[in-house]
Amino acid sequence: MSSALAPLLEADGLAVQIGERWICCDLSLRLMPGERLVLLGPNGAGKTTLLHTLAGLREAQRGEVRLQGRPLTDWPGRELAQVRGVQPQSQPDWFSATVMETALVGRHPHLGRWAWESGDDMRIANEALACMGLDHMVERNILTLSGGERQRLAIASLLAQRPALYLLDEPLSHLDLHYQMAVLAHFSALARAGAGVAMVLHDLNLAARFADHVVLLDGTGKMVSGTADEVLQADVLSAAFGHPLRRHVIEGRVAFLVE
Amino acid sequence: MICRPRSAVVVGAILLVAVAAAFLWALWAGSVQVSSAELIASFYGGEGTGAAVIRELRLPRAVAAFTSGALLALAGALMQVLLRNPLADPYVLGISGGAAVGALSAILVGAATWLVDGAAFAGAALAMLVVFGLSRGDGSWTQSRLLLTGVIVAAGCGAVVVFMLVMTTDTKVQSMLFWLTGDVSGAARPWPALAVLGVGLLAILPFARDLNVLARGELSARALGVRTRRLRLLVYLLASMLTATAVTLVGLVGFVGLIVPHLVRLVIGNDQRTLLPASALAGGALLMLADTAARTMVAPIQLPVGVLTAMIGVPVFLFLLVRHPR
Questions:
Q1: How many structural domains does chain A have?
Q2: Which of A69, B57, B171, B241 is deepest in the core (most CB within 10 A)?
Q3: Where does the ABC transporter domain start and stop, copy by copy (chain A) (predicted)?
């Protein structure tokens, strides 16, 4: 099996297409345990599509994605779900369920076909809910939650899954400032403990603060990939987003100002 | 509420008692009075009018009512997850429409009862294949496309049914209307349908937790390792077969398939592992009660059983809805 030094996630010559439009033509990246990758780009550039391709939820036109050295296409679904978790961009709810039941859904890949959630699963779900400040409302019906609470619940459900690789599609949407920082700090802590994190973000300043690697899609099939310092430059970002930006270093931190 | 195995056992026990009580009432009640001694004797091959009435009339009828109620409630619960729509019922995808066209055509040409049943089943199967084929047309097999195709096929069948009713002579219209509102009295051989119910439950229960995940959405389910295409196909075929079996047995009994899963959900939550078997038991009990009430309340007139399912189910449902603001 793979050693601790093997990359968690690797993409080789990845080409992704939606309909006739190319998202990226030749993307190669490696994410080691402990690293955070941020996907940036304007609306419709294909960030979600690329994230889904990295998650194995969508086939690439060309190239290969490997998780722990093994091609995604070789992973059985349940085993894959034990190792990589996905937080979708939106989580529509049709039926009543309690907050606890919803967090426990994350335990699904760890349970056998006839198994019921054990005390351990309950404890893990409870910890995940506590992380997202939802542990005082475990019996609440999810249909009565606010947008921010739903988002935190979706993240708690992912945390209960306890994968090695976290793929987050706009994890900060609907969250207030406090929880935006809490979520990013928590995933950074998970990364320090050996997990890998890839996330779609919109805020360039938060990306500058929380990214080790950045993939920037510009929506025309062109793409810049590299370390955060390489990609997060004013001219590169201004071109991709179609709006002039200036890069400053304030008290040792990179900050972007919109012209 | 977290449904632990223990609470599932409690719910199951309560429902089994309800089914047993409804069953005994269905055997006991009716125009021919039977004593409890005769009731017990009838199980051991007892002689006499009472025992004969129970064995040959009331027992098959009670089993038919239980089976069709359970089939419809289970099919309804499955359709609601499949279409991710709480308003879905077993008839929403046009299976009932196909069955109605088949059955009414057979009645129109004056066919025998077993041929009417056969035509109903053939119509249901045909509607199922048409909806399945058309909704997969572009390979997307999405639930909105499935729902739209089903609703359109159902509407088309509805038009054909009305056309046949208008073009038919009076005596046949009576039996057509009885078929369309659901009629348990004609179901003399309910045992194969009971076997279908058992097979259906056994086939879906291993996937019950997968269905919990699917209820959260297709993408989430796939991300959690559920093979959603295969699962949705299984659910569609199973729900269709259960519905086809039920309408072949008793015609179009409404209401059970929509309301019973909701009723059960209000009491024990949306965990499919308990919801599916509990819905089947509750649907069976409700239709047995409704049918017994339908044939005894204003005897000798027999009310359509669909009227009774609504009269029993609506107040219970509204009571639970008001009590649980969830």
A1: 1
A2: B241
A3: 9-244
